[in-house]
Amino acid sequence: MAKPRKIKIFDTTLRDGEQSPGATLSHQEKIIIAKHLEKMNVDIIEAGFPIASEDDFKAVRDISKEIKKSEVAGLARVVEKDIDRLAKALEPAKKPRIHVVLATSPIHREFKLKKSPKEIIQMGVAGVKYASQFCKNIEFSPEDASRTETAFLYEVLEKTIEAGATTVNIPDTVGYAQPAEFGNLISGIIENVPNIEQATISVHCHNDLGLAVSNSLEAVRHGAGQVECAVNGIGERAGNAALEELAMALKTRSSYYSAETNLNLSEIYRVSQMVSSFTGLLVQRNKAVVGENAFAHESGIHQHGVLCKREAYEIMDPKMIGKESELVLGKHSGKHAVKSVLKEMGYGLKENQVEEITSRIKALADKQKRVFREDIVAIANDVTDQMREEDKRIVLEEVKIFTGNRVQPEAEVSLKIDGKQVVGKAKGVGPVDASAKAIASVISEKVSLKEYNLKAITGGTDALANVVIKVKNSRGKEFLAEAINEDVIMASVEAIINGYNKALFKEGKPK
Ligand code: KIV
Ligand code: ZN
Q: Which ligand is located closest to the Cα atom of residue 142?
């Protein structure tokens, strides 16, 4: 089998990515991202467009100072003032790259630049020659290449390579190309540009039709040696090809593409999260590779399959990108998944406890769709901490609450104490206080409530409430008790009764 070709990864998160509507990065954030991209072994980091703003200039300059392993690139139009500014910003770079761009398609030539094809070639050649006095690593991009007449594109590429371009980048600027068509464009360039072997072919695909990654991969299949991309696929309009998707496609299907990258894949998830939190551009939940659901299995059949053999439902190991697989427990989850999650959390459970926990998780999932780790812990604690029914002296029958903004809250609690029905009533400062007082009013043994803690386990008004209390019995012994319920009052009442049962068990339970 032929040795896989090395595909260079040119990351433009800090240039095209930062052009995303709604994204802004501070100077410090850009430096942090650049350092992480270097740690990820990105071959080229495009750090900004220095002529565009003072901030971009400083970003390219300071990233050039910091980055030693990756090449640092900046963007310039093929005009001297742009190239001078970029060259200045790149001065501290150990491995600088000048990236010059000039639109070549008829629509750009006629309406934006108002230049003839001949003038475009002259401008491109002059720009590349001018740039090469500053550094020999020059990338030339014929903007809107995919909508440029192919014969003209071949000529532009030939002349700019002759002038010194070492990489020729083929942008699908408006995300118009289709995969097979774009692949053929790359083959056409290889066949028709006589000096093409003197340069690396790069591609820069936008995602307007959702094809940026497919087009880039098709270009690789047809001989491109560099792909331009951005973390989480951010960039102008619908964005650029997503770095993480390209990286994982080339890793997972390396033999299909006969290609590989130098990337340190285990940084992918961390960098994705970082870019999302710095730019404020959230990663869509079902986004390939880095979305929250990318490795989450909810259906019981899938969960069981993954537990038996991960590859049954996962083509990539989430650990590879620095992320653990997440089994989301929901109403479709089976007891295998519940047991495995709890085992991982350190619970050793009896079969009947697993069954009870599973059915409570399903009941909760019916109400709140997803059950989070914290919910599971709370339910498991509740189930495992339960006293045997026959050991409970106090059993709750019913709670009634009367409350409102113009009445003092009042509770009526019906209990069975040692098998005898009793009803307690009390008023309080709030419904929980009233319930606690109503319970205390019918229990003759002295038990004092020392602490009461309430927390919502997961977000939303339908979240589980977790109440933990501390009670002290007449011998001075303290007991912790807890309960969870979707209803705050019920969680409080159940926790208090659990506490009373623990506090009164040893002393009062008839032998
Ligand atoms: O989309 C585009 O054409 C670009 C060029 C500067 C490569 O971003
Ligand atoms: Zn672009």
A: 1
C-alpha 320 to ligand 2 mean position (Å): 28
3-state secondary structure of 99: strand
| pLDDT in single tens digits along all 511 residues of the chain | 779 999 999 999 999 999 898 787 889 999 999 999 999 999 999 999 999 999 999 999 999 999 999 999 999 999 999 999 999 999 999 999 999 999 999 999 999 999 999 999 999 999 999 999 999 999 999 999 999 999 999 999 999 999 999 999 999 999 999 999 999 999 999 999 999 999 999 999 999 999 999 999 999 999 999 999 999 999 999 999 999 999 999 999 999 999 999 999 999 998 998 898 888 888 998 999 999 888 887 777 887 887 787 788 889 998 999 886 666 677 787 888 888 877 766 677 888 888 988 888 888 888 766 676 667 777 887 787 656 666 788 999 999 999 999 999 999 999 999 889 999 999 999 999 999 999 999 988 888 888 888 877 666 777 788 888 888 888 777 777 788 888 999 999 999 998 898 888 644 443 3
17 touches ligand 1 (CB under 6 Å): no
Gap from CA of 204 to ligand 2 centroid (Å): 6
Cα of 185 vs centre of ligand 1, distance in Å, is: 17
- Report yes or no: 98 and 128 within 8 Å, Cβ to Cβ: no
Nearest CA to ligand 1 atom 8: 16
Which residue, 63, 54, 142, is CA-closest to 97? 63
DSSP E strands, 150-194: 167-172
DSSP string, 229-248: EBGGG--STT-B-BHHHHHH
Residue 236 CA, closest ligand 1 atom number: 1
Both tokens of residue 359? Answer: 């059915």
- Please indicate whether residue 16, judged by its CB atom, sits closer than 6 Å to ligand 1: yes
* C-beta of 101 in contact with ligand 1 (< 6 A): yes
- Domains observed in the chain: 5-279 (3.20.20.70), 296-384 (no CATH), 389-507 (3.30.160.270)
Six token digits for residue 434: 């009233």
CA of 17 relative to ligand 2 center, distance in Å: 8
Report the atom number in ligand 1 closest to the C-alpha of 228: 7
**Rounded to the nearest whole angstrom, what is the distance from the C-alpha of residue 235 to the centroid of ligand 2?**
7
Q: Is 141 in the pocket of ligand 1 (CB under 6 A)?
A: yes
| Cβ pair 218, 253 in contact under 8 A | no
Dist CA 424 CA 249 (whole Å) = 66
- C-alpha–C-alpha distance, residues 241 and 217, integer Å: 10
